[in-house]
């Protein structure tokens, strides 16, 4: 039964009853999927929806508008530099300071605003991130080996020279994003780390400023949005350009990174937060609902999906979500996300759940089953796994030590999240130590160049064969 939308006929491709693909890259179903529709692998029914979200077509117009707006802002920053950055900051954030860069006095003032416990909590979280990042850094080894007599090949792991770290802070002051980006870049050995965050309630958020400073940022600016990303990428009179930009943000920030990629490197394109809860009857609806709503509160377009082999748990969770929404302080946002982007999928087995989860390729995957390690062993597409009911996505978001900047929109099919290795360039080198080695490699190279018709390449090899072997290459 091939898919009518993309005409895929692979047996592993998950299909809806109507024979349209599940559009896993944006974590919402296709137009014709409704409650009760079945999911198929090949000709076999594997699961069904008890709740669906809005259609992918409903997001297309919004994406087009975001793209156009970002193009205008980037062009303006490129043309007018600081003046444009100031104008856009005033328009979007009502923020027009004398200097966007925070002084030492500004940073000291931020420390003074925080309770000692807040500073200690930030210090603890950063220690966990730093410790795991250092373990990862230590796993990256330089290599040098003699692969043939007289031929030495190697690689070095070289940090990027300068990085811009974007820390979201308009809706919520995402202090943890400073740990995840600045601390990790520092462990990698980046020489210049620029960190930016938008104003929060009319001023720099003191907790974000302190987190940036404690993490090791060399320059701290209070500016956000597309204008901040463009300024770091293109450079202005105030902010010198960087080589790479990392960190999460809203749809506009993600689109700015996409458009500027190539001018600068990026970590990944982080869209709206996504969570997938995989659960069976060993847990209850209260826990599942809390884990779904805990991520849905990120924004009204944050997908939250329950995948279970227990219809009883599925229905219990849906009822529990409605109850928790009556008491959750962020309910206006979480309720919108659940209504528009929430899904409940019932499967029959762990195997089917793995198939569906790998198609979804969610940013966060919370596994609460009898055997959570089954999913660790068999799943291949996810940003981060949270195994067992004792942990949860919030731990990863804030404090446990793994990085929270993760792939969304199905990008987990081909990339992992931000980690110390993202700031490292693995660069190769070679040496040829003897005349005999150069002549031997040159003879092979000459013939291979001739096959491809590259005369100049061939002569590079031939001249060395003539010099070091004292004979003409064929």
From TrEMBL:
Its cofactor is Zn(2+). CDD domains: Histidinol_dh. GO terms for biological process: L-histidine biosynthetic process. The active site is at 363 (proton acceptor), 364 (proton acceptor). Binds 1 zinc ion per subunit. GO terms for molecular function: histidinol dehydrogenase activity; metal ion binding; NAD binding. Its EC number is 1.1.1.23. The keyword Zinc applies. Zn(2+) binds at residues 295, 298, 397, 457. NAD(+) binds at residues 166, 227, 250. Gene3D superfamilies: 1.20.5.1300, Nitrogenase molybdenum iron protein domain (3.40.50.1980). InterPro entries: Ald_DH/histidinol_DH, Histidinol_DH_CS, Histidinol_DH_monofunct, Hstdl_DH. Coiled coil: none annotated. Substrate binds at residues 273, 295, 298, 364, 397, 452, 457. PROSITE patterns: HISOL_DEHYDROGENASE. Pfam families: Histidinol_dh (PF00815). GO terms for cellular component: cytosol. Keywords: Metal-binding, NAD, Oxidoreductase, Zinc. Belongs to the histidinol dehydrogenase family. NCBIfam families: hisD. PANTHER family: HISTIDINOL DEHYDROGENASE (PTHR21256:SF14), HISTIDINOL DEHYDROGENASE HDH (PTHR21256). This is Histidinol dehydrogenase. It comes from Erythrobacter ramosus.
């Amino acid at each position: 039964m091939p898919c009518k939308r993309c005409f895929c006929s692979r047996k592993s491709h998950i299909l809806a009853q109507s024979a349209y693909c599940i559009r896993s890259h944006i974590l919402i179903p296709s137009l014709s999927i409704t409650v009760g529709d079945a999911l198929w692998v090949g000709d076999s029914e594997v699961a069904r929806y008890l709740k669906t979200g809005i259609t992918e077509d409903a997001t297309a117009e919004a994406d087009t508008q975001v793209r156009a707006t970002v193009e205008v802002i980037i062009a303006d920053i490129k043309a007018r530099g600081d003046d444009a950055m100031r104008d856009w900051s005033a328009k979007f954030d009502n923020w027009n300071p004398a200097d966007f860069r925070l002084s030492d006095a500004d940073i000291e003032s931020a420390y003074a605003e925080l309770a000692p416990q807040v500073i200690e909590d930030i210090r603890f979280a950063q220690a966990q991130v730093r410790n795991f990042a250092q373990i990862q850094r230590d796993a990256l080894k330089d290599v040098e080996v003699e692969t043939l007599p007289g031929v030495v090949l190697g690689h070095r792991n070289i940090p990027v020279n300068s990085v811009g770290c974007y820390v979201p802070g308009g809706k919520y002051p995402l202090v943890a994003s400073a740990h995840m980006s600045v601390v990790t870049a520092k462990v990698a050995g980046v020489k210049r780390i620029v960190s930016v965050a938008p104003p929060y309630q009319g001023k720099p958020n003191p907790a974000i400023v302190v987190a940036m400073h404690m993490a090791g940022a060399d320059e701290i600016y209070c500016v956000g949005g597309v204008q901040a990303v463009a300024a770091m990428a293109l450079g202005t009179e105030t902010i010198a350009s960087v080589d790479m930009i990392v960190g999460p943000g809203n749809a506009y920030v993600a689109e700015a990174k996409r458009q500027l990629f190539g001018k600068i490197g990026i970590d990944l394109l982080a869209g709206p937060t996504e969570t997938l809860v995989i659960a069976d009857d060993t847990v209850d609806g209260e826990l599942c609902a809390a884990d779904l709503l805990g991520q849905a509160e990120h924004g009204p377009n944050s997908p939250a999906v329950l995948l279970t082999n227990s219809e009883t748990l599925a229905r219990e969770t849906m009822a529990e979500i409605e109850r928790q929404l009556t008491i959750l302080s962020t309910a206006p946002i979480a309720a919108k996300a659940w209504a528009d982007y929430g899904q409940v999928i019932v499967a029959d087995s762990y195997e089917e759940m793995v198939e569906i989860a790998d198609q979804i390729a969610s940013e966060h995957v919370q596994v609460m089953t009898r055997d959570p390690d089954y999913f660790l062993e068999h799943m291949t597409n996810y940003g981060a796994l949270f195994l067992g009911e004792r942990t949860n996505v919030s731990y990863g978001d804030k404090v446990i030590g793994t990085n929270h900047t993760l792939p969304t929109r199905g990008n987990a099919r081909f990339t992992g999240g931000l980690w110390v290795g993202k700031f490292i360039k693995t660069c190769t080198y070679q040496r040829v130590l003897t005349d005999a080695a150069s002549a031997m490699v040159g003879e092979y190279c000459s013939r291979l160049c001739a096959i491809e018709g590259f005369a100049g390449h061939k002569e590079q090899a031939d001249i060395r064969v003539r010099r070091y072997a004292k004979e003409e290459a064929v």
